[in-house]
Amino acid sequence: MQASAWTYTREEGGLAVLVLDVPERSANTLSSLVLTQLAEQMDRIEQDRPAGLLIRSGKRSGFIAGADIKEFTTLGSEREALVMVRRGQVLCDRLAALPCPTVALIHGFALGGGLELALACRYRVGVDDGRLALGLPEVQLGIHPGFGGTVRSVQLLGVRPALDLMLTGKTLRAERALALGLIDRLAPPQEAETVARALLRAAPAPHRPVLLERMLSLPGIRGLLAPALLRQLAKRARKDHYPAPYAIVDLWVRYGARGRIAYEQEAASISRLFLTSTARNLVRVFQLQDKLKALGARDAAAPGAQEAFRRVHVIGAGVMGGDIAAWCALRGLEVTLQDRGLEQIEPALRRAAELIEKRIRVPAERAAALARLRADVEGRGVADADVVIEAIFEDLQAKHALFAKVEPQLKAGALLATNTSSLTLESIATVLAVPERLVGLHFFNPVAQMPLVEVIHAGQTSPAATAAALSFARKLDRLPLPCRSAPGFLVNRVLAPYLLEALIALEQGIAPELIDQAAQDFGMPMGPVELADVVGLDVCKHVGDIVGALSGRAPPLPLTRIEERIAQRKLGRKTGEGFYVWKDGKPQRHSVDWASVPGDLQDRLILALVNECVAVLREGLVTEADLVDAGLIFGAGFAPFRGGPLAWAQQTGNALIVARLQGLAQTQGARFTPDPGWAQRG
Ligand code: NAI
After folding, report:
1. Are 410 and 388 in contact (CB under 8 A)?
2. Measured CA angle at 538 (ends 533, 541), to 5 deg
């Protein structure tokens, strides 16, 4: 028999301690097995009748990370899902029904089902070690809490804080959790257990929300609040794309987080959600994220390789280099930032200060992060750097001149990286004595918000350099995507035909508002015309020309509209006007006749992109379909609930997509000819 993940100890004096320490895992999760074992412990505790029960984790990492997400993918029917959810619910009910006081002693994270278990305790004590993070992030997986959390969170915190916690899925830090009553006490690590025991002995009245929050749950008021809540939701996500947040509001409006029925309906609702394609795909997104993370860890050149990166030297303090340097300093690295003069570096230092101010709360840590980033016009940092990142103008000659100067100064074993977005590594490497150590680290703009980094390798790049670059990206807490050097790499290459199709549609006289809406209706976070304006029309054209020349898919008509705007320096958001006029960072849209949208417009945009995904896979830019999907989701925001472009095609039916492409090739032109790679996609 497998050893239980739970250890129950009855102490002298009547208190008991239940410790969760799931074997062979760095973090505790509530798998079916762990829940079955908890049921056995509950039998025992109910008989043993301790005077008080303290529950804590035996892991260093935290309390409980949530349910075991892998098990979600095995659920074959609503009925099966219901059985799983009810089991967790019943256990939490039994915990809540114990006659003795109960306390969850929480350090690090308590997320999802882990927090729900803690919510079933009478009290919660947080360990104040700077790492406390409590949340109900289920909505990010297309579901909602299912172990009684939709009911108990409202009962404990009140309507608005609880709905906010569930609808945003964001985690709360220590002070906020204390202020809301999610934890009853916050204590330093060495005192926390004593504080928890004292709570059990004193057994004060449990926390209740303020009167106003309790009144909001009255039936009449619920009905009044519902429309406003739904309006707010509609601004963020469509119900057919993301049903879970709507289900959370619906449960509360109907049952008011009261009584047995509220729990029963929670279970019924989450069981339905589990089977939706949205939940399946969002679980897939979560797993893709883990897959990319693992590439950085597993492929690390040597154990502890991430620790080897301490000093970074960034050359070029513009949009990208400045923000890359700031991000490196934020992540604990010593950074020197070089540009042609101090006046080019100063704006980057100011932006870095803003970022660090926003992201780091503790004043001493903030000061340390700021001190880690230094201007270095002379480039003295090169000789000491473990990694040198070039982010100067996108000009091959300029890059050649720079690399020729920098390479002889590098210390042995240093990684040399370029952030180029459209030049190949091969073309840059011609001036290098040791081309094996050149990699691409292609960050996306804005650096602090975009999780993906394409890690580019060419034929000459050594496997050790690629492994080190993957590991470096992880050190920066980015998702590394290994990709072969080729024009546009993965993400820009695939976006190019999508943006091109939008430009063709504009030339055909279709309004930008209609084009963007067609893409957003599919689930893209931003339409292609708006995206072109955000990226900059000059940059778009530059990348488009390079990628277009490669693919040989010339547009069927001259693209006069973008040319005109570039000639007039209307380059998009950065100049205040592109295809849209921009005010306060937002495109000004005109009212248009929504009914006039051509029936094939959405297909034209999305299938242009999907067809190119098949092409890059066939060409071997990345090694597997999952990496294409991950790249497009994390690098371009491709509708996460669709699971990625190739997963979407598969779910829709590859044969059907090919037929639709063939149709478009007839009506719109040969650019839609299905890529030969479809033949391998089954
Ligand atoms: P930028 O024009 O904002 O900044 C370039 C900086 O490099 C300027 O501050 C310039 O003074 C400096 N510089 C030029 N020559 C130099 C030299 N020899 N020594 C030191 N500093 C020098 O350019 P941006 O947009 O930051 O692009 C930089 C690189 O990143 C390019 O290769 C670009 O393709 C790539 N990239 C750009 C993205 C974007 O969205 N802007 C996205 C991903 C990559």
Report:
1. yes
2. 95
Statement to judge: residues 128 and 199 lie in one domain: yes
When mean pLDDT is compared across 30-34, 372-376, 556-560, 615-619, the lowest value belongs to 556-560
- Cross-strand partners of 168: none
Cα 85 from Cα 151, distance rounded (Å): 14
Q: What is the pLDDT of residue 551?
A: 67
Choosing from 107, 144, 313, 442, the catalytic residue is: 442
CA dihedral defined by 471, 476, 481, 483, rounded to 10 degrees?
Answer: -70
Distance of CA 418 to the CA centre of its chain: 24
Domain match, 371 and 234 both: no
For residue 303, the model assigns a pLDDT of 45
Strand order in the sheet with 334-338: 373-375, 334-338, 311-315, 387-390, 415-418, 438-443, 452-457, 479-484
Is residue 159 within 8 Å of residue 217, measured between CB atoms? yes
- 447 within ligand 1 shell (Cβ under 6 A): no
Round to whole Å and give the CA distance between 219 and 215.
Answer: 9
Claim to verify: residue 442 and residue 355 sit in the same structural domain: yes
- Check residue 306 and give its pLDDT: 59
Question: Is there a single domain that holds both residue 89 and residue 199?
Answer: yes
Sign of the alpha-carbon torsion through 164, 166, 168, 170 = positive
Q: Which residue has better confidence, 304 or 177? A: 177
Q: Which residues pair with 588 in a beta bridge?
A: 581
* pLDDT tens digits, one per residue of 559-576: 999 999 999 999 999 999
| 34 closest CA partner among 22, 24, 26 | 22
Three-state secondary structure call for residue 455: strand
> How far is ligand 1, taken at its centre, from the CA of residue 317, in Å?
7
**Mutation pick for ligand 1 pocket among 376, 392, 452, 539 (CB with most ligand atoms within 8 Å):** 392
Residue 308 in this model has a pLDDT that exceeds 90:
no
Pocket test for ligand 1, best of 313, 315, 320, 342 (most atoms within 8 A of CB): 320
The neighbour count for residue 14, using CB atoms within 10 Å, is 13
| Active site (annotated) includes residue 542 | no
State whether the beta carbon of 534 lies less than 6 angstroms from ligand 1: no
Q: How many structural domains is the chain composed of?
A: 3
Atom of ligand 1 nearest to the CA of 341: 11
Where in the sequence is the domain holding 255, given as residue range(s)?
Answer: 6-275
Nearest to 638 by CA among 320, 292, 288, 319: 288
Instruction: Please tell me the chain's helix, strand, coil percentages from 3-state DSSP, rounded to the nearest 5.
Output: 55, 15, 30
- Are 508 and 653 within one domain? yes
Two structure tokens written together for 301: 């050149």
* Rounded CA separation 425/437 (Å): 11
DSSP class per residue in 81-126: HHHHHHHHHHHHHHHHH-SS-EEEEE-BEEETHHHHHHHTSSEEEE
Strand 15-20 versus strand 52-57 pairing type: parallel
Same domain, residue pair 21 and 113: yes
Q: State yes or no: pLDDT of 65 exceeds 80.
A: yes
Convert the pLDDT of each residue in 310-359 to its tens digit.
Answer: 999 999 999 999 999 999 999 999 999 999 999 999 999 999 999 999 99
Instruction: Kindly state the greatest CA–CA separation across the chain.
Output: 85
CB burial of 384-394 (b: ≥16 within 10 Å; e: otherwise) equals ebbbbbbbbee
